[in-house]
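Each letter names a residue; the fold follows as tokens. Both lines appear below:
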Amino acid sequence: MTDTQNVNTGTAAKAAEQTVKLRPTLYIGVGGTGMEVMMRVRRRILNASWGSDNVRLENLSQFPIAQFMHFDLDQGAIIDSGRAQTEDLQYNLVKFTDDEKIVESFDIEKYSRDDASLSRYPHIQNWLPLTPRKIRELGIDPAKGAGQIRSVSRLYFFDKYPKTRDKIRSKLNTLKAGLSRDDMLRKLNLQLDTSKFRIVVLGSVAGGTGSGSFLDMGWLSKWVASNEVEAADVELMLFLPTGYSSANKARTEANAYAALMEVESAMVGHSKYVEKWDDYDRPQLASKPYDEVHLIDSGNLARQHTDNMNDVYSMIADTLFEDFRSADFANRKRSVAVNQRQHKIHMFAPPVPTGRFGDMKLNYSCAYSAFGQSTLDTLGRARYDEYAYSLAADMLKAFFGVASANPAANRASEKKRDAFMAENMNLNLVPFNNLPEFSAATLKNPEIRELNTEFMDLEIVDILLRSGQNGVEVDIAEETRQRVSQRISEISIIDREQWANEVRKTMQSLMRDVIRNTDAMADTAEDRVMRRRKALFESLKKDIESRLYLYLDNHEQGGFEYVISLVEQIKDRIENANSGITLQLKNSANRYTAIKDALLTYEYEKQLKDLEETKGKGLLAIFGGGNKEEQARAVLDNLRKDIANILSFHLRAKAALEAIELMQDISNWLGNSLGVDESGKTIWNGVMGDLQSGQESVIDMMKRLDHDREVIHQQIRTKHATLQIIETEDVKEREIDPRLMCEWAAEAFKDFGGSKELFKILVDPDQQTPLLLKIIRMAERRLVIFEQNDQEEDALYKALENMSVVERQNVFTEWLQRAMPWVDAKMGGDFTPPPDRFKCFIGVNGADQFSKKYKHELTGCIPSGLGLNAQALSIVETGEPGRAVCYVELSGIPLTILRGIETWRTSYRKESERTPLHTHIDSTRFKHPYAPTPDELNSLADDFKCYLKAVMLGVLKRCDVPGLIPSGQYEFAVARGDVRRLGNERGFRLNGLPQTYRDNIYDQVQQKFKSLSDANLTMLIALVDHYEREIYTPRLVQNETGAQVEHVGFACAIAKELKKELIELAERKEIPQELIERAYELTEYREEMEKWAEVLKDSDEDAYQDEIREPNKGRRLKWVMNMSPSILQIHEQLLVKNSMADVVPIATFAMPGMTPPPTPGAMPPPILQQPQYQYHIAINGQNFGPYPHSKVVEMLQQQQINSATMVWREGLANWIAIAQCPELAIPVPPPIPSIPPILQ
């Protein structure tokens, strides 16, 4: 987690342990496993109480020090296992937003539409092990995931690289911005280390998406962090395959083994796994993708196992969540990695058979760690939550007035209904006594006399006759009377003879102004009444709705049950066939119409007739006497009244009819029955339906609370792999006044704007969660106050004290066993970690008290045989009563100790024959993560030794085809003209020589070896020595004293073994040591080696770089012997001292069967052996031979054949001309000169 510590301190005292404060953290989940853990961490953040005020977060945006990012192909992975989205109270709060995920459609076809598709993306083509054709054959649906094919996931990563890079950058910048939220950090009591950030990548090696992208994600996160923040540690939580065996066991194990090969190579450093992700960015990538790698499995060191991966997800989430606490336990736990880093920088070298391999080191990275966490819990918190949910349901019941024990007690009465309708719907009963004046003759009719009596009408009729604009209202009926009066007044000033006629015209005109007919174009009084009715409907709806919500808010007499009963009675009052409002209004309309008709029939027509009589010498004039003018005007005034009454009563009838329609509209708006449901309950629409839905929603919420409370109740009695429940008494329930609960709920809901806004939330399932959380949080706050007042003893101490010593020891033993690091490893064999690699912290409320009481018992319960001892155990403070947490971490372990890794490799071998398992086309760049058995090691050593000889002697030749993947491949002549590529050195290191060609290679190497002369053997010894010293130079490692010691790698050890065997053979052949030393000298300079050896192009990349020493200068290229017979023949001359080489012509050593004369005073060189080739000669299309070398030379000298004659021998791929065969193309040596006589 911090800079690497210097571990080469000798016997100096260890540096004081560092304390790591809480760091802003970005969690990146790759694949479904990452999602599972992150969802659980998010829930814990929301459900925790923070700070001294026990603050509960309403959403994750209030937690500024954690950001999340989900990277996946599977678009269906949206919620943690064991939960249903529709029933999850917190789903909308914990689900990943679009800003937090890269879970998108993937157009894989653009890389596979045709065989040339991939060539357009060379930065992908150079690593992708899948061809376009193979992708098409697999038929992968990316929306459902990577199909357990790791390279598909990596292809998705490259495809989404720009978005992934920008998302990481955005999240880190959000974390930086969150550091300025001092108020929130203080409120949550979070003490931050702002100098460094933390990135945690979570994924498994078993599946597709996570297994195929976790390495790229690590390198990318490191690179982006280096540019965006001051410093950051990047950690990996890597889940092993054991827990995923139900999802195609063979494939998950094979994927896991391939992934472990890759991570092993990556954590050694400089693996060149990735250089860039697109054609634009040129990232400067770190040598390793991660600072810390934590291994996680479904079994632990104490052989505790779980079949349910949810247990493991929960343990990891608990462990990660603890890092957000600021107590001593969290501080110490966070500091383990930095203080244990000294154990992760070394390599693990398992023991090897020293008889053969001596001090050879097979190096495996110890960069890995494992941890476990187990909890002793009295479940006081869970029981507290259970009671909080129950209290929240009671608060909802009290606030909304539902599910009461006596629903009839909260039902609206008829009196309250009538008062509501009178006040809010203008349905007050008012007497109508503004009756017309009928003549005495008309009143003799009993029906007319009955009509002309006072009766009760409804206020709404008068309201509908009011119209106005800009806030000024007028009475339409009164306005009509005034128009009648005005028109009659206008008639009274014209010629009296025209009065009757003008009255008729006026009556018709006024009727057109008042009454709507189909031909009318102008606005009428009836239209104004209709518009008034429509406007009043909208106004009444608002008033009624507002008043209903006021009743909902009136928690003493209102509530859902009251309001629903009120609406039901309003509808009945409107629609009742015997006594309803509409019936009453219909009676009023009929009565107004009857009065209008009586006036028209009995009064209006009679008055018109009388007006006619006042003209000229009519009867009225003759018999009436008096002034005809006065009589006419009296009749005209009566007509003024009658016409006004006729039109007025017509409008009142119209208003009554419009009131009926208005009441029907209101009734329909309030709701109509749509039938009954399966339980026989009436189904409503309209306001009644909304109220009914709201009531049902509240009841459903209460059911959800009851359901969640039941889930908590079940969890209280369910043991998990890392949770031990200690039974205690249930939380004491309290008698609380419903009115007080109603006040608490009102306080919780005050930010929602009252019942009207709450009602909208109630009927929207997506918005119910915040409402429920509000009520739950309020219930929790109230319970906290009760707890503070009670001040009871810590339930954990009380429970432990009530146990016997034996019971307590059993609890402690099981607790510590479950807290052992959750990695199933073989301990005590080749790898036994020293005690200082373990750290064990027990976090508890009242650490000093707990230590005094129980530490002695705890130390006796530590699992034996693992390396953990009492000195590694520390008891530290958490400040959380009722529970104790034990955290154990083991640092510096190699992958080779994983139990089951050999089985995983078996699956790897099987599955690799079907579909590529690696995320790179060159699988030879990766190393096996486990140590071979002695038999396997011996077999690999034999094959590698044979490989070295095959390369040096030309049996395996470097393939010159450019751009091959993997690079550095060798080819082998299986038969004449049949040359095949076999792989590269790393492939032979991994798996030995190919079984198909192994015996053939051994045979050809043996044949070559047997054909070597003593001089050839001597030069071969020098070449092997060169490999040992210069090609596979042992790596220098600094020990605890600061001294550098050699770590001999596998290749170097085999070169040593080969050299030893060859020297022993030379001793048996009595080859002088001086010649061997001379041969060694010939390897020191390039110009000397070029005389007898050839360079293998780019062979400096063959060896594992972590095994060999970095070269001092230049490239470390392999050399192989030039197996040309002419060159083989000069080996002896090269071995002669320089003084001899100056006197003796080299050509003399090339004569068949001859030994060069010794120089005076010099030791004679050993006899050289001629090549043992047998030659076939083609003359005129016929094959002759085979002939030995001497015979062919003789035929050349006698000119029986010439240099153009075609020849073939073993080792040649095809027939060639003699001139092209080096050993046959040499000139015939001159005769040996005579030796001069000795001078006297």
User: Anything to note?
Assistant: The chain has five domains: 25-297+898-910, 380-411+683-796, 414-670, 934-1150, 1173-1240.
